[in-house]
Amino acid sequence: MGNYRVLMKMIFLVVFVGWLLVWTLLPTENYKNKWSPKLKSKLNSTYFREQGTNLVLFSFPIMFIAALSCVYLHIQIKKSSKSSKSKSSNVITSGLASWRRPVFVKAPLGIVSAVELCFVVMFVVLLIWSLANYLYVSFGHLHMHGKSVKIWQTKFRSVALRLGYIGNTCWAFLFFPVTRGSSILPLVGLTSESSIKYHIWLGHLSMILFVAHTVGFIIYWAMTDQMAEMLEWSSTYVSNVAGEIAIVIAIVMWVTSIRRVRKKMFELFFYTHYLYTVYILFYVLHVGVAYFCMILPGIFLFLVDRFLRFLQSRHHARLLSARLLPCGAFELNFSKSHGLQYNPTSIMFINVPIISKLQWHPFTVTSNCNSEPHKLSVVIKSVGSWSQKLYKQLSSSSLDHLEVSVEGPYGPSSFSFLRHEALIMVGGGSGVTPFISIIREILFQSTKPNIHIPRITLICAFKNSSDLSMLDLLLPISGANSDRISQIQLQIEAYVTQENEQPKSEAHKPLQTIWFKPSPLDKPISATLGPNNWLWLGAIIASSFVLFLLVLGLVTRYYIYPYDQKDGQFYHYSYRVLWDLFLVCSCICLVSSVAFVLCKRSNAMEDKQIQNVEMSKPTTSPAARSYVAAENKELESLPNQSLIEAIKVHFGARPDLKKILFDSKASDVGVLVCGPRKMRHEVAKICASGLADNLHFESISANILVYTFPILFIATLSCIYLHIRKKIDGNNTESIAENAYLASWMRPVLVKGPLGIVSWTELSFLAMFITLLVWSFSSYLHGMFANINQQAEQMRRNVWEAKLGSSALMLGLVGNICLAFLFFPVTRGSSILQFLGLTSESSIKYHIWLGHISMTFFTAHGLCYIIFWSRTNQISEMLKWEKIGVSNMAGEVALLSGLVMWATSFPRIRRKIFELFFYTHHLYVVFVVFFVFHVGFSYSCIMLPGFYLFLIDRYLRFLQSQQRIAPVSARILPCQVVELNLSKCPGLSYSPRSIVFLNVPAISKLQWHPFTVTSSSNFDPEKLSVVIKSEGSWSHNLYDMLSSSPHIDRLAISIEGPYGHTSTNFQRHEMLVMVSGGSGITPFISVIRELLFRANKATGKTPSILLVCAFKTSLDLTMLDLILPVSDTNFDISCLLQLRIEAYVTREKQPPTDSYKFPQTIWFKPDTLDVSVSAILGQNSWLWLAMIVSSSFVIFLLLIGVLTRYYIYPIDHNSNITYSFSSKSALNMLFVCISIATTATLVFLWNKKRNANEMRQIQNTNTASPINTSPSAWFYDAERELESLPRQSLVQATTVHYGTRPDLKKILSECKSSSVGVLVSGPRKMRQEVAAICSSGSANNLHFHSSSFSW
């Protein structure tokens, strides 16, 4: 059953994030112009018309989650037993807890945790992103509303309209927090009571946007003399009058909901908030059915919950008794059905008609459903007018019956306070009531064998001594489990703040108990939908929504659609809305009523079996006796003796909460607070200060899901996104990073120094990342150093030694943050990089930066610990490999392997001794393995996502590299350049400037080198070409082998790739300037070939091209031969491209006079074992990769779940002190590898079969031998007639300059086109020079791009 629950959670997360992704893509230009028309053509049928798309994309996902979550919650409730979760000694536990700590503790947001802050930031980013995209799209296609309207006025209107769109986004989330019986909130550990602040935030935010929307339109109408528009109620479009009515109503609700108004005039707030029904009606009439479907899920679920509450409130609850306390508080005891289950801290809404027929007030349930199966109690303190009237009614008259209606109870779906070692509960006044239910639950749990019961400290502050009588309520009136009070560790510190001395004993007033006569019309409190209420709720949600769709489809198809087909007639815009609202309400009422009636019958059968239980009158208050014990009374004769002994009363003092919390020495302390706002803020500040890491405000999540799942989910979703984009747009879509809208942020800002060429975007993210590291380190140190003096004293060390040890640990923690990002840039086939418009080649510098930073932190971490151990005479710690906890020796092995990789990766060493760098970098396997052994697998989950994706990519590359590729030919140029032409499958497509990694076993079986693909997958559908310049030992050996053996007919080659951009954006520029040095020309060969193909096919406007290339000698000019493929020598460029080539020979001042050496072509014989280059996962590679990522992770979770449950748990019993950490880490790493290898291998074999079938259909193409005359040779042979030369147009386009270098500044400044793409590839100095020119700001039309293998 546990596996089903995990699977269902993953389904919830996938669907929910997909829903959020739709909201993210909604304002984009791609969605509006490309995806939306296609979706509408398929989803907007005659049954749903314009609502179809939004019903599928916006309504269905949340309704699906809501229905399925009911099933999940039902399964969760049916678990046989609840077991306390043992604490973890792992470092990551406190790290996760820090995310649950409060960050903000004051207005305007109240108490906000780090997790909540992150989601708030993401939501605000979503709103800003949406507004920016809406405005970007609308400003690009302005619709002028009138001839006299100016452009700036139209833009002003557009801004006002888009503010309304953003407000609608807030509305989509507005009703979820106030759906009390929501099945979605329990999934994330929330209740309507704890999430009401989200409703407040969303309400304020949406009202700000809607008011700005309204004011903006009024100003626009006033400026353009269209004030009459305010009175328009259009029959074919939005109704302005309806919107104005809605905003007026909303402003009334908004003003009365402001905190000061709400606190002082609650009735005014309460009654005006009932205007929400009118607000929804006119809001939907204003926006129309299409936008209504976008916000429908929240309203639909709220209406279901509201109608069920209405049905429950029609019955009067059977009130058994009331206990009146002398402090003005009273306890109401209700009869309840045995099947009604609820958890501690649940709340119930109560209505007393004789006080007010409309007002409902929430109160905490103090009873325990386990120890009191037939009773439900709530405590009410008379602090407001309603409660004061009720108290007066109970105390001043001899009531024998009281009509009460209830809604609820509502509360958390589970409780987790038993997992803490200690509990500190802080209550002020009536704020003690939630803790009564917790203590009663703990009393019940203490009756179970082998269960951990935490130590309990209850800190309660009261104004006067009469309030102490509230402590009587800790024990139920029935006395259930009262004898267990002495067997739990309970300490109660009561503070009476407004009395300085003990009152006289005779001043104590006894409790008054009122018993009510039963009425046959009253019913015990029961779940509205019976014991299986979650299943019934799921059935109601699913059935009512399906019924709504069916009826809506029928009404639209057979009533509205025929009306619209009549000539010149359109069904009224507002009537469509009224139909939707009517059908929603009708379907909900019908289905809910049927379910309620069916459940009512089963509840009636149970009601007949409930007997009124006689309850003895309570004795004198133990709290009262706790401070009169000095009156020579014998404690042994007092009842509730153990409770009395647990209470200590302090008069005339307030609790020193800081001292109390810091004095708690337990390793895991749960802190709960309920009371005045000031008290809650004070406790939150103490827990947020970081001075005591053992204080936890909320529960802790699972490590692997918190850190690993989100990134793997993003990777999977990005694969799907890339697949969709490829299918819709081919390879011509602009990537995110290359959008013209972001062009200014892509300009270089730094062009020299250790970081190389850095754009504004990269600098911004780097600054944010450094800020994160500094903030993390300072926060860690602040928390550690807070009690460093006490720690040093306990460990009998100097303070500076204790600080050194803490600093060493924090350095390692911060280094791990860098490690979490380290592997993303080197994952060549990464979907995340492609989604961001990056390639592994362009992002390798990020890997270098992260590697240097992380190794700096880890080295400092290791050195600090060595110094610490040597100073404290613990140098033997270096040799310890602990069974439980951190292994020092494993960390030292990891650090040594890291240092070796680090030392050989410096530029001077890497370039001079590349083989040393290459081979030592394979030590990353040793580094990762021993790092995991060092910190444990749980903590290494922080860096697992990046490494997991890297392992998938690495294994897929390994599978691809095992195949031998069929070489077709090789062209050997006299400038020591080799062009290899490889056979490829026609289905393999790639973008210009892509790279492949080659391995030639005849030269080295281990070395792999990257080279640019010079062919075009469109121009050369069956060939893939790479150009190799002999500059290093490996390339020299290859050139010598091919050039010295003219009769060679076989060459074994392995390949990985190609890798590159998922899109090209060259055609968005008016002009392309490509600057190269030496072999740096190779990326531009593929660009020119691709543009030749597009120009030939007439696919859009082709930019003019200026190729500036610098060579050392005239022999290098032969590289220009490679611009045209060997298979098409008669291709005419001049008719297709505006191409100009400026070639500079820097070391020769005049053309050479010696004879020209012709290129040599070698043709290879085919081999039956060779295969063509193909995509490792076939044509749908992104979908297959998504399946590998998701499936392998699910398999991994299942494996570790089985391992933990059936192997480790019987040994360890969740104590984390028995089973070896290293063994656990080794098994987890093994399962990671098994999951990836199994899934990837199956997918690879499946696609290998498909590729084999495709390759059988490929016929060997007879490629004519190339003409042995190089066009570059004619550049310096003036005696020949140009008219007789082959490739005439290429020759005419080329100008050669001898003995000079290109004046790049002059060349670029003379480019007058409005958009000039500047691409540079070559030596570092050249790239920096071009980057400096583009970043100078002197020419805003220059857009810089760089390519380099100088890693």
From TrEMBL:
Molecular function (Gene Ontology), one example: metal ion binding
Membrane among keywords: yes
Membrane topology, as annotated: Multi-pass membrane protein
Co-factor(s): FAD
Catalyzed reactions: 2 a Fe(II)-siderophore + NAD(+) + H(+) = 2 a Fe(III)-siderophore + NADH
Any one GO BP annotation for this protein: monoatomic ion transport
InterPro entries: FAD-bd_8, FAD-bd_FR_type, Fe3_Rdtase_TM_dom, Fe_red_NAD-bd_6, FNR_nucleotide-bd, RBOH/FRE
Lineage: Eukaryota, Viridiplantae, Streptophyta, Embryophyta, Tracheophyta
Transmembrane segments: 7-26, 55-75, 109-139, 159-179, 200-223, 235-256, 289-308, 534-561, 581-599, 704-724, 763-783, 804-826, 846-869, 881-903, 923-951, 1182-1208, 1228-1246
Recorded superkingdom: Eukaryota
Similarity field: Belongs to the ferric reductase (FRE) family.
Species: Morus notabilis
EC id: 1.16.1.7
Gene Ontology cellular component list: plasma membrane
Protein name listed in UniProt: ferric-chelate reductase (NADH)
Compartments where found: Membrane
Pfam families: FAD_binding_8, Ferric_reduct, NAD_binding_6
Keywords (A to Z) from UniProt: Electron transport, Ion transport, Iron, Membrane, Metal-binding, Oxidoreductase, Transmembrane, Transmembrane helix, Transport
Domain FAD-binding FR-type: start-end pairs: 312-416, 960-1065
